[in-house]
Amino acid sequence: MMLPRAGMETKSGMDGIAADICVIGGGSGGLSVAAGAAQMGARTVLIEKGLMGGDCLNFGCVPSKALLAAAHAAAGIGHAARLGVDAGPVAVDFERVCAHVRATIAAIAPHDSVARFEGLGVTVLQAAARFTGPDTVEAGGRTVRARRFVIATGSTPLVPQIPGLDGVPYMTNETIFDCPALPRHLLVIGGGPVGIELAQAFGRLGSRVTVLQGTTILPRDDAELVAVVRDRLLAEGMAIHEGARAATVAMDGEEIVVTTADGVRVAGSHLLVAAGRRPTVAGLDLERAGIAFSAGGIAVDRRLRTGNRRIFALGDVIGGYQFTHMAGYQAGIVLRNALFRWPARACDRAVPWATYTEPELAQVGLSEATARAQGREVRVLRATMADNDRARAEGRTEGLVKIVTDRRGRVLGAGIAAAHAGELIQPWILAVGRGLGIGAMAGMIAPYPTLGEAGRRAAGSFFTPTLYGRRTRWLVRLLQRLG
What we know:
Number of strands: 24
Low-confidence stretches: 1-14
Strand content: 25-35%
Number of domains: 3
Oligomer: single chain
Radius of gyration: 26 Å
């Protein structure tokens, strides 16, 4: 039986919509599915209760990178002086910095707008969605019946249960960009990527910053690479308390005071809570659709199907790698399964991530510690940026490239702590994803002088013991005697 086009009324009443695919959530992953499905001819409904573009556009990647750009520019003035260029004292106009952040969001917003998606033929419902059965959803008084559903509701900031926290003013990544003035002393609970990026940004813009982290900062990254970032943050005047779990929070006059479990007391003017994220599942009535979930997110198989095979889920709401680029990748997997019945499976072997501090920190595949914990026999290859001519010319010699291979040279993982690490990691994503041998990377011709030569140098070091060893020297001498 043919279903009516999305937006047409069904026999069930004037408030019913029938579609081939219904996407719940207008963040990066959901928008990718909706745009792709509509352009490939599927009758598509998109439901979003909040801002189109989701966390990435409005509270995450876009505003944070715009803020970081301003912060890096401020720090760059001091760096210019080390190169012989004097630009005078740094003066930060925080109101104009915030205007730049807002303008960046506004410039990108049309691509994620209701108008654009309606122009693609998508029916957009701006309301909260809840399942009423295994193949029906209610949103804003409308009932949507679809052949396939995709849940892409993302995640929200995790606010830990710290005694006294609910009695003080605090910010998360969803509210910090609305801060009316530059904080005098910003306290940050959480030393993951979000907390560290924002800490360095505000520090460079003129705030005093203190970070409190229950473990080490950036705990998912290689410790040797994290040390490079930590050293820079400390050199810039940031106070970092690692192994410091926040035990209580209270007001002392106009100051916010955080006391750690071991008795350290830190007072500041503003508080940012950046303690992680939790999947957004509340209010969806997933039980009515037969969908299993937990505090860690919605359970899916490798095809990103839930327990209800007509319903898929992707992005932050399924836990795991909570990155915008991962949601985009998963959108392609869902489209192949939902529209073409192609049993595409998600693979997380070569998922990269980057932290956009200065220097940047980027990782893909297995770290040295993870590989050794798995009992693998590995070789670790390194090249420092101090040995890279381009880095020397630009006066940015801190950091290194670190490659992990198996004993035969297959690339298992790579990590970089250096300027532009998020760009430099990209060929290594291909190497890990395709299971390339280190020889392929060592044999690459890199333009001179570029920062990317550091990766090639690290790769070449795999062959150094053999190439310049005793056996090679013996062979060369023998061949020379033979003429």
